[in-house]
Amino acid sequence: MRKDKVRHLSLKKVILFTLIIMMLGTVLELYLINHYETALQLIPILCIGSLMLILIILFFIRTKLIRVIFKVILVISALSGFYGVYLHLVANYEFEIEMTPTANNWDLFSESLSGALPALAPFSMIILALIGYSYLKLINQKQ
């Protein structure tokens, strides 16, 4: 039984470390590509900043309210990932229409996936939220 507890604690640490590295790496990348020039571009940065702050609080205070706030911010972060994919695809699609106005919709869509804006990069916010949710599930388990 003691062996299980040690493994369980190490899994928590791995997931927490992964979450922290993912948040720091994502926010650093967003900063380096100047992803803060408009209000919409600030959404993932604000989500990650909120997650970092509540994660620090959650580390010391594990009340139900703090866990619920963390979960809400995780959901908002995941939704921001879907919204970001949509925004990137729309911008790329509009660019492709200007470049090749006679192309069919499928060709425009497929070109939009590999356009100037990385269309699938915002999915990293969804992965970040899933890692955070995994950590939350682990700390909620009875020990």
First-last Cα distance: 11 Å
Q: What would you call the structural class?
A: mainly alpha
Overall pLDDT metric: 92
Radius of gyration: 19 Å
Shape: elongated
In total, how many beta strands?
Answer: 0
How many separate helices?
Answer: 5
Structural notes for this entry:
The N and C termini lie close together (11 Å). The chain is mainly alpha-helical and 143 residues long. The protein is built from five helices and no strands. α1 runs antiparallel to α2 and α1 runs antiparallel to α5 (123-140).
Compact description:
With 143 residues, the protein is an all-alpha fold. It has 5 helices and no strands.
Which helices and strands appear, and what pairs or packs with what?
Blueprint (H helix, E strand, L loop, with lengths): L1 H31 L6 H22 L3 H36 L5 H9 L9 H18 L3
Short key terms for the protein model shown above:
single chain; 143 residues; mainly alpha; 5 helices; elongated
